[in-house]
Amino acid sequence: MDLKNESVVAEFILLGFSGPWELQIFLFVTFSLIYGGTLLGNILIMVTVTFSSSLHSPMYFLLGNLSFVDMCLSTVTTPKMITDLLTEHKSISLWGCMAQMFFMHLFGGAEMTLLIAMAFDRYVAICKPLHYRTIMSHRLLSGFMILSWIIGFIHTMSQMVLTMNLPFCNHNVVDNLFCDLPLVIKLACAETYTLELFVIADSGLLSFICFILLLLSYTVILITVRRRSSGGLSKALSTLSAHIIVVTMFFGPCIFIYAWPFSNFARNKILAVFYTVITPLLNPLIYTLRNQKMQEAMKKLRTQHVGST
Predict the structure, then answer these.
(1) CB neighbours (10 Å) of residue 213?
(2) pTM over 0.90
(3) Which of 31, 199, 231, 286 has the smallest number of Cβ neighbours within 10 A?
């Protein structure tokens, strides 16, 4: 394709939310509070897990790492989204856009792996309690962490290598709050049908398969517990409900955004906000409000800090 007479895109325009300035201010305050709560909550979980001896177990180790990934995932898009609400010219450079998409899929792929690791941890804890410490060893946990970042890197690079080689000219308006891979691909002045199918298979199908596998693993756990003891079923449900909520809230938007044909859900800004702004806040909310052991550890650390000062 001859691009000599075409203007090469140097930046993308993000349409964001349109509306009166009162709505923009409301969204600015709301997103700022949510992002602040996300940072504070996830940092609090990481600090508590690190410095509380009662939480030095595989489950809380995985939870601490999940908090770190959630915090990073939110930071990729939310600060830019917040500042754009107060600016008329909502733009992002070409490489800034590529960086957003790279890190979104890096942290997203890592989080998928961590959620699977947490499901495996709960399976071993509930179905094989006598062998829990032996199976969930430090070596296995380290392997889970390394694997999560490797999968995240492979997941994002497999898409970004192809996307960065696309020619962008003239069309540079992204009808979203941030650079979303399906929408950016559609702006390329080249045939992208094959790449669109690849993104659907890579991101959408991967999200869908992981979601189904996680639901099946939780079902197996509940069936196993019910066969052993009917009284243990309620306890297992209480333990797993938080995991199921996190999994559903994380994978739901991913499946709708990436697994469907691009024209159907790519413009759904509500799902985009939910995926990047709301979901990272759910982790600290669910695991602090529902987890008594975590609350006790936080109180103990606060008491020790106050006593030492």
Answers:
(1) 12
(2) no
(3) 231
